[in-house]
Amino acid sequence: MSIDTKMAWRNIWRNTRRSILTISAITFATTLLIFMLSWQFGSYDTMINSAVKLHTGHLQVQARGYNDKRSIRLVVPDPEAVGAILNQHPGVAAYTFRATAFSLASSKERTYGVMVMGIDPEREAKVSTLKKLVRQGRYLSAEDNLQAVIGKLLAENLRVGIGDEVVVLGQARDGSIAASVFRVKGIYRSGQDEFDRSGIYLPLKTFQDVYGMRGAVHEVVVLAKTLQDVETIKQDVSTRLEKTRKKDQLVILDWMELMPGLVQSIKVDLGSGLIFYFILVVVVAFSILNTFLMAVFERTREFGVLLAVGTTPGRLTRLLLLESVTMTLVGIIIGIVLGCIVTWYFQVHGIVISGTAELMSQFGLPERMYPRLSVLATVIGAGGVLVITLLTALYPALKVRRLRPVEAMTHVQAV
Amino acid sequence: MRKDLFRTGMWVYILLVFQVVWHAANVNAFDAQAIVKASFDYWRGKTSVAIVDMTIHRPTWERIVTIKAWTRGEEDSIFRIMAPAKDKDNGTLKKGKNMWMYNPKINRVIKIPPSMMSQSWMGSDFSNDDLSKTDSLLSDYVHEIIGTETHDGKTVYLIQSRPKPDAPVVWGMQKLKIREDHIFLEQAFFDEDLKPVRAMSAHQIQMLGNRLFPKKWRMQKVDVPDEYTLLEYKELSFDDNLPDRLFTLSNLRNPGR
What we know:
The structure holds 2 protein chains of 2 kinds.
Chain A: H1 3-12, H2 16-56, E1 59-63, H3 66-69, H4 79-87, E2 92-106, E3 111-119, H5 121-127, H6 130-133, E4 134-137, E5 147-151, H7 152-158, E6 165-171, E7 177-188, H8 193-198, E8 199-203, H9 204-210, E9 219-224, H10 230-243, E10 250-254, H11 255-258, H12 260-298, H13 300-308, H14 313-349, H15 357-362, H16 375-399, H17 405-409
Parallel strand pairs in A: 3-8, 5-7
Antiparallel strand pairs in A: 1-9, 1-10, 2-3, 2-6, 2-9, 4-7, 5-8, 6-7
Chain B: H1 2-44, E1 47-58, E2 61-72, E3 76-83, E4 91-95, E5 98-103, E6 108-111, H2 128-132, H3 136-139, E7 141-151, E8 154-163, E9 173-179, E10 184-190, E11 196-208, E12 211-221, E13 228-238, H4 249-253
Antiparallel strand pairs in B: 1-2, 1-13, 2-3, 3-4, 4-5, 5-6, 7-8, 8-9, 9-10, 10-11, 11-12, 12-13
């Protein structure tokens, strides 16, 4: 251990209380940042997963151009072949087939424009939350034929209840007119008005008959085991699709491409979060600056003596920096450990914000929210504190260089 | 005194010029209005009965529907699909600004809600609005002659039609080409930024229903040249005596006749 290191270490512990306060400020900032970032990332995971389960799935295989044009003619002609590809991937939790058509829905006297969706009732239940969202009546079963599950607001607009008839009129795949009469079997409510106002679900077989789909579907909806699996599934399926004869016709899209709005709202939220963290770090930095500066003022006479016996100003600066770096590192290391422990605890046990459970369940969100500990959150949290603290430490360390030995030695101590 | 007199004279002169210009503008507007109205009357007749093949063309497919259409004045019309067999007897009734569709398979009549009026009619490039608001061009727009050209030796008026300030229309402007013998040659639709959106043009002008009439009409979107809808008149007769009961919901529901 060189003499400088030894001096720095001893200087730190000369005023134990102040050093411990400084270290604990750094520790606190690091812990808080790591936890908050993990919480934020975790809540995005929850948001994405629940949005994905509400409707789009993590990934969809569609005909090229279908996502923009929504034309009934842009189909996945052989959904089972796509299913066979998906079965081979371990990251796929479940998948289902859907067909969609824009149509008119009419009760006795009222008519609205709607999205009619054909779903496989059993597979759909494994991919989306639709089954749980049915509030009145019952969800579709495999034997159902001319039965429909419709949105709550649509039911109100059409003024229909369970067992009432709804007429659907639209355009079939071949351009002919598709028309049929359904009985309302169930009514769902997701909390998203747009969705509750325009959705009608039919059994897929019935949809395919009415709309002349000849076995084709529009979307193969994939639910991944975790959000982290999405990218690998996408690449894997994409290369496998390339090898099939239909490579020019089918594409696989991930949730970011399917729900660009969600990605944007996450970006906005992350942006405002980062501003908050920046303010937090700046506040911590000022308190650290305060203690560092105090330490220098207190030791003005000592520095004067050191300069007088021939210590170079550069060495003094190094000494001071060494002291602050040591304190910062100690604080950050404890902060990382503490932050990880706290985050990990809540990651296992979850957090219930009291009073919101009912609200959350209405929107299909789980009642417990979980932070997600990640290397990224830890690095950003610890790194942010490290950089700003070191920048703060530079100021007093450089200030020392301007001291004149004689003046410094006669400096009257403040306390 | 002379100076005052001169000044008064100048004012009178200016007023006169103003009046002449004003009058000319009015005459122009009035003329344009009359040309469009006359063309509409010629196009529709008092009544018309037509059989039309509608071809919906898309890059990868094409569909032909045969439609029988009855119209009376600008308010009433009824359309019935005759072929293909799968869609036979589907019908559309238009009375004033209201529209209903009938489907024989489910034996129901559905009223088209206002929010759906801008949607495509039977998958074609025509919207429900095109059918239900044909008279909107007469009542909701101010017309102005912006030029002339010749076509088959006849004068063609180029007319610019702008919607009246509070008119419930979706277009920012329309441009019409109407030949002096009342034949509608082209109708171009512009959005609110006055960019062209689509245009309907008339082709193969010949004798149909005892008057010169374009046999083919083509509705074309501007930005997708390979997508269009073509109307081809197979039969056409004007000014038949059409009974009131033809344009009723019960007739829409009874395709037997």
